[in-house]
Amino acid sequence: MITISSVDAQNRFGQLLDTVQREPVVITRHGRMAAYMVSAQDMQDLQNLQTARTQRQSAVQAFEDWSQRAAAAALPAAAELTDSDVVRLVKESR
To answer: For the segment 79-91, what is each residue's pLDDT rounded down to a tens digit?
Structure first.
């Protein structure tokens, strides 16, 4: 990843736009990281990852909510079932 000062970024902005099409660029100000500049495609990829993460978190939360409701509604005898009992019951129901 290339690092460039904010002054150089201003002076070579056109070249910087070309560079970020190949790789992200770190822009520094007073020797400290101030910003990243990425291509439009990289930004879209990052946004897609964030959307996927949000969807995954929602799905996990929905499953946990369902699991708690199912556990609360289950009969006490259900707690005594083994995995093999569950498999057998599923096969019998088909």
So the answer is: 889 999 999 999 9
- Residues 2-38: name the CATH superfamily: YefM-like domain (3.40.1620.10)
Beta bridge mates, 4: 27
pLDDT digits (tens, 9 = 90+) for 29-73: 999 999 999 999 999 999 999 999 999 999 999 999 999 999 899
Say how many CA atoms lie within 13 Å of 37 toward its Cβ.
Answer: 21
> Pick from 66, 68, 48: which is nearest to 56 by CA?
48
What are the structural domain ranges in the chain? 2-38, 42-93
pTM passes above 0.85: no
| Distance of alpha carbon 39 from alpha carbon 24, whole angstroms | 7
**Closest to 12 in 3D by CA, of 22, 1, 23, 25:** 25
Q: Find all residues with CB under 8 Å of 33, minimum gap 6, and list them.
A: 26, 27
